[in-house]
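Help! Submission page says 'invalid entity' but I think these are all valid:
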Amino acid sequence: GAVYDWRRQVTSHSPEYQRWTQWIFLRFLEAGLAYRRNAPVNWCPGCQTVLANEQVLADGTCERSGDLVQKRDLEQWFLKITDYADQLLDDLDGLDWPERVKTMQRNWIGRSEGAEFDMVVTDADGTPRSDGASIRVFTTRPDTSFGMTYAVMAPEHPLVATIVTDDRRSDVEAFVAVAAKQSDVERMAADGGLDKSGCFTGAYVRNPFTGSPVPLYLADYVLMGYGTGAIMAVPAEDQRDWDFATVHGLPIVRTIQPPEGWEGEAYTGDGVHINSGFLDGLGKAESIAAAIAFLEGEGIGEGKVNYRLRDWLVSRQRFWGCPIPVVYCPTDGIVAVPDDQLPVLAPDDVEFLPTGESPLRHHDDFLHTTCPVCGGPATRETDTMDTFVDSSWYFLRYCEPWNDSAPVSAEAAESWMPVDQYIGGVEHAILHLMYARFFTKALADLGVAPKELREPFSRLFTQGMIRLGGDKMSKSKGNLVAPEAILDTDGADALRLAHLFVGPPQDDVDWEGVGIEGCSRFLHRLWRLSCGEVGEGPVDREPTEADAAVDAATHRLIARVTEDYERWSYNTAVAAFMEHTNELYRYAQAPERPRRETLAESVDALLLLAAPMAPHVTAELWERRHGNHVHEQSWPVADPAKLVVDTVTMVVQVNGKVRDRIEVPAGVDAAEAERIALASEKVQAHLGGNPPRKVIARPPQLVNLVAG
RNA sequence: GCCCGGGUGGCGGAACUGGUAGACGCAGGGGGCUUAAACCCCCCAGCCCCUCCGGGGGCGUGUGGGUUCGACUCCCACCCCGGGCACCA
C-alpha cells in the first residue's frame, strides 16, 4: 500500500549510478577532498575489510559483524570530511532535528579550542640537544602552562627513538613494545583510573613559560591519533595528569586558586591565576588569550582548534561496492580514470573467498590495464568504496535520476532540495546523517549542487526500531518476520494498523507487542458497519437527540484524528477509530434504529480519516458506497459549531479528592459552579456539614473545596 | 565519569498547557448466539479492604522529600533500564 514514484527509482549498484558515484569521487580527488595515505586503520577480521571510525562501536566491535576490531597499518583512501568540521558543527543549529541526534554529532565532531606550541628537547640541566629536536604539544589550557611539571608523548610518537637517552633506551623500547601489542580496547580498559602506566625517556623539554626543563615521559594515556600525540602535563588542573603525577612521584603546582573549601584533586574550574608569572591575578579566559599571545610573540606556537572527527576511510576490501576509479602507473603514479571511461565496473566472474584483500585483485583482466596518461602497463585500484558513499548522495539523484550528463542538475536540485522531512533510525545519527551532510556541502562547493544548498535534510524524524528477542530486527542480523503469512491471514491494512497502533513511532517496540488481532477485528467491524450488516438497518427521520449526539461525535472524531495526524500520534488516531466504531455499533444496534443520513455521514468520515492508514479496505468500502475513489476525496473538515458542547461533566473535589461528578451547562460561571458543587449530598457528607474554608472554581470542569 | 532518553494495571500503551490516572487494544472473567466449538454480539475488569449487594472507604504513575487548593505532569536528591561519548589533553 505504499506509494512510490517509480520513475525515480534509483539502484546504487547499477552501472548508471556507479558512474556518477565514481564521477563524484574524481571531483573530490581533483579538489583534494579524496586522498590516499598510509595510516593505522580499523580492521574487522570477520568482514575481512577495513572500517571507518564511525563503524566501530564504543566497545571496539564492528557495527556489522560484532567482531573485535583490530588496528592495521594500511595504505587506504580517505575523504577529507575534517575540512568541513566547523560547518558540520555550526550548521546543526539551524536544523529541525531531534536534539539527541544533534548532540551526538556535536560530540562526534568534538571541537576543542586551545593552543599548539613547540618545546625544545634538553638534558636535565636545560641544555638543548645538539640536533635541535623539539616536540609540539596541543592544549586547551595554555593558561595553566606555568603549572607544567612534566610532559608526555604517546608511545607511537615518531620522535621517541631519537629523543630517548641511552640509559633509558631498553626500558623505553620494552614499554613501547607492550603498548604496541595492546588493542585500543585493552589500552583503555584502565578506564581513566589511577594505574597510569608510563616510562621516563631520560629527556627533558623546556617549558617556554618558565624557561625550566621538565621530564619527558611516555604514557599510553596520550593517544597518537589526537592533537600532536604529545601533551604538556599540568597535574594541578587536569585529573589525568594528577593521577599520573601521583603514581610517578612528580611535583604538583597549582596555578589557579581553587575556591574556598576545595577538597578535590585537580581543579579545572575558573579562578585567579597564581604561581603564573605574567598571568598572576587574571581569570581563565583572559589568561588563555594572554598565553596564546605570548606563544605567538615568541614565534613558537599559536591558537589552534582540534577535532575528534577523523577523515573518512572509504576503502573496502570487498567485491561489492563501487570500484574506486583510479589506476596506478609506474611512471605517472596515481592516475584518475577519465570521465568518459566511467563507470569502472567490477567483473562478475570473481572468486569471493575472504582473504583480506579485495577479490578484484585476483582478477587479472580487471587488475591489469593501461595508464590513461602514458599508455603503458598499469594496475587498477582493486578496493571498492564503502557503501555509505552511495547513500551519501542518492537523495540528489532522486531529483533527476534520468540525467545522463551529471549526477543531478543544479536546477533539479534547486527545485526539490532540501528534503523537507527525512525519516530514519537513530542508528544513522553519526554515520549516514553525517556523511550525507558532508557530501551535500562538498557538492555545493564544487558546483554540482546549488551553492546555497548547505544541508540535505531540513527536518528529521527518528523512528524507533522493531526488536525481536531483544535484538534489533535487521537485514544484516537476519532476525526478520516475513510479512507474507500475515498478508494472507489478516491483510496488509491490519499489519499497517498494528504497527501504527503499537505505540509512538519514535519508540522502539518488541515484535511481541505488535498485536494484529485487535486491528484485524477493528477492520472487520468497520467492514460490517460500512456494508450495513450491523443492526436492523437505518431509517429516515428528523434528527433526534441521540442522532445529534452521534453527529457531534463524528465531528469531534474529525477534529481529533486530524490533530493526531499532525502531531505524529498515530496510535491515538487508531484508538479514536476504534472508539468511534464501537459507538456506531451501539448506535446501529439500538432499538430505535439509526438515522440513515447520520450513520452514513459518520461512516464516511471514518473511512476518509482511516484511508491513509488502511488504504485497501477503505478504498474497497468507499467504492462500494460511492462508486469512486476514497484517495481522491478531500479531507473531512470538522464543523466548529458541532464541536461546541452544551453540558460538561464537572468534577467536584474535597481537599483534592474527587467526590462527585455533576453534569453542568458548559457556560456555567464560578458562583453557579460553586453553588451546584455545594448542593451535592456526597460533597456535603465529606465536608461534614461545615462550610468550606476555601473554594477553587475552574468552571466548567472542576470545583475543589478545601474543608475547614 | 559526563550527556541524552525513559520508568504508569498481567502486557502494549493513553492522559497535548498542573485539573476525572489507566482511553484504545491484547490477554483474562461473565453472559448471549450455536447441537458443540470457533467466529460474532453484549457486559465486567488498577490493587486492597468493608458491604445490609445499593454501594462505601483506603492506596496507587521507580524511591524519598518539596512546591501547590490540586502533581504521571513542576523542583531537589536518589535507584533502575536503554542509548551516546569517554585517558580527546
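Support: the input was valid. A stray whitespace character was the problem, and the output above is from the cleaned input. The longest helix of chain A spans residues 545-566.
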